[in-house]
Amino acid sequence: MQNKRTERLAELQKLLNICPGDVRARCDLAVLLEEMDLPDEALLNWKAVLDFDPNHLKAREGVNRCRSRTRRPFPSQR
User: In the predicted model, what is the mean pLDDT of residues 36-51?
Assistant: First the structure.
């Protein structure tokens, strides 16, 4: 299972190097990083999605999950 995740991680990173604005790939990467227990890295990717689309519900939920796991403060507004 971990091997497949590592392969998928490499695929997504390669894709995002070519097209950093691919919101779907960035969401997939963030979800994968959460599954791999890497909330700090996932949080960075969720924030990148919100930079492209501030109203992206899945990304907002991902930010909240990651901030809860890392104990980072929630912003007063976004």
Answer: 96
pLDDT at 75: 58
How long is the chain? 78
H or E segment to which residue 62 belongs: helix 57-70
pLDDT > 90 fraction of the chain, expressed in percent and rounded: 85
Whichever domain contains 32, its CATH number is 1.25.40.10
Query: Are 59 and 50 a contacting pair, CB within 8 Å?
Result: yes
35 in a domain, yes or no?
yes
Query: How many independent structural domains does the chain possess?
Result: 1
Distance (Å, rounded) from C-alpha 71 to C-alpha 78?
A: 18
Range of the domain at 60: 2-70
In a domain? residue 75: no
Give CA–CA dist 3/65, Å, rounded.
25
- pTM for the model stands at 0.86
